[in-house]
Amino acid sequence: MSELLRSPLFALALTLGCFELASLLQRRAGGHPLMNPVLLGSALIALTLRWLRLDFATYFAGARPLHLLLGPAIVALAVPLSQQLRLVGRRLVPLLAALAVGSVTAVVIACGAAELLGAGREGLAALTPKSVTTPIAMTLAERLGGSPTLAAGLVVVTGVLGATVGPLLLTWVRVRRPEARGFTLGLVAHGIGTASALGEGAVAGAFAGLAMGFNGLLTALWLPSVWHLFG
Amino acid sequence: MVRGFLILLTAQFLGETLSVSLALPVPGPVMGLGLLLTVLVLWPQGARHVEPAAAPMLGKLSLLYLPASAGVFFLSDELARDGVALVLGAALSTVLTLVLIGVLTERLFTQRGSS
After folding, report:
1. Which of A28, A187, B35, B78 is deepest in the core (most CB within 10 A)?
2. How close A13 gets to chain B, by Cα (Å)?
3. Which chain A residues have a beta carbon less than 8 Å from that of B82?
4. Which residues in chain B have Cβ-Cβ distances shorter than 8 Å to A142?
């Protein structure tokens, strides 16, 4: 029995099962951002592993086929991105400038604050891609010598915070245009922010998807070189 | 679906090859994303060949990061100790970047809209 619990078959079935359960719970809660399927699903997996006294490394080795699909999934982002790119038209250059400012600001403030609070280099490496969509963030963190797992956690924390507090904060500083609201939510809070922007309307959602995709691409292009410069 | 998947894997493979052979710090899949994006911008109709594989995968993207993210609950003590500092850093950066980029892009879209 315990041999079977260590098999890839069990790891894969457990992952799919927890995902289905988490998605169901999220639908029941009316799509509340705190009921995020990643947050909920990974908690369910962790609870099951603890309950069955299985170690994480064995589970992860079994569930590896799903993890490996992140590679082609990152490449697949090119499809929606090429469609959203047509929305931008003549605003491309100023938007790319805003993107560059946002991409750098997010990393610098996060790392600066965490380093002042005493975080070590390995932790900081996992924090840098926190505004980047999870698959790219995990690959990036791994490249920088950080834990992809911790990176995924920090990405979810950022996404949930951005998607819940973001819309209120943007209204408070009088950001009203759907293009601007969507773009900001997608840049700062990636997929979870994009889902929240989609709730505000199709225009906000499209600009959020665009900002999410390009922030992932842009951050992956500049961050590793700059990181090694300080290393 | 098979053709779409073949295109995605080929793009990733070319991306990985570029990344390794030129010793680029950019991860291979991101290079693959750049390559495919360039192709799709130059040849928009190409999207219909990739779509059957891309759409279902992107629709269930959260499933793919479950295995790694479950590891958050099994972090080493050392990294867990850094956790508070890292979460506070992420939170502060999220709030400040939201305000900065929100105000910046609001101006950008307002100016462009009125001109």
Report:
1. A187
2. 12
3. 114, 118-120, 122-123
4. 27
What is the rounded average pLDDT for all residues in chain A?
88
Give the pLDDT mean for B19-46: 90
Residue A148: what pLDDT? 86
Integer Cα distance of B65 and B50 in angstroms: 22
Helix, strand and coil percent figures for chain A, each rounded to 5: 85, 0, 15
Provide the shortest C-alpha distance from residue B32 to chain A (in Å): 6
Q: What value does the mean pLDDT take over residues A162-172? A: 90
Residues in B touching A49 (Cβ below 8 Å): 70, 74
Half-sphere exposure of B72 (CA within 13 A, CB side): 24
Q: Are residues B33 and B63 located together in one domain of the fold?
A: yes
| Tally of domains within chain B | 2
Helix extents (H) in B22-76: 28-42, 47-59, 61-64, 66-69
If asked whether residues B20 and B33 sit together in one domain, one would say yes
| One domain for residues B5 and B48 | yes
B53 and B108 co-located in one domain: no
Which single residue is written with the structure tokens 């951002």? A33
| Same domain as B97, residue B65 | no
Q: Do B15 and A75 touch (CB under 8 A)?
A: yes
In this prediction the ipTM stands at 0.87
In chain A, residues with a C-beta closer than 8 Å to the C-beta of B109 are 91, 177, 179-180
Q: Residue B40's domain spans which residues?
A: 1-74
Together in a domain, B63 and B91 = no
Q: Are residues B25 and B57 in the same domain?
A: yes
B11 and B47 belong to one structural domain = yes
Q: Is the model's pLDDT at A3 over the cut of 70?
A: yes
The answer to whether residue B17 neighbours chain A at the CB level (below 8 Å) is no
The pLDDT assigned to B89 comes to 93
